[in-house]
Amino acid sequence: MTADLTAEGGRSTPSPPPLASSGRASGRGRRDWPLYEVFVRGKRGLNHVHVGSLHAADDEMAVHAARDVYTRRNEGVSIWVVKAADITASSPDEKDPMFAPSGDKVYRHPTFYEIPDGVPHM
């Protein structure tokens, strides 16, 4: 019987066995799982806010992992997970051509309306 020794001469602890596959990963390793972007709506908030990213084997696993990682203190009331590959976004370099056309359409800006004091979040 041989003992595993570390570089310092002490005994090494055996490494834990690899995690069992849940069957959802379809034989893929964790590094191959798709990246999901996570959005959480807080109890007092009106909008979902991007809180981070995670890798998961499927959509259901992403929701559960997002709940465990990003709402540990019960601060959320709703979670959205979106595959990062499914997100299409404009580039900050496209700001002028993308948003400049609305500048000449004054009717799109609510400068002509008085907002009553009793209307919140406007």
From TrEMBL:
The name this protein goes by in its record: Ring-1,2-phenylacetyl-CoA epoxidase subunit PaaB
NCBIfam families the record matches: PA_CoA_Oxy2
Disordered, as annotated region: 1-29
InterPro entries to which the protein is assigned, alphabetical: PaaB (IPR009359), PaaB_sf (IPR038693)
Annotated source species: Blastococcus saxobsidens
Phylogenetic classification of the source organism: Bacteria, Bacillati, Actinomycetota, Actinomycetes, Geodermatophilales
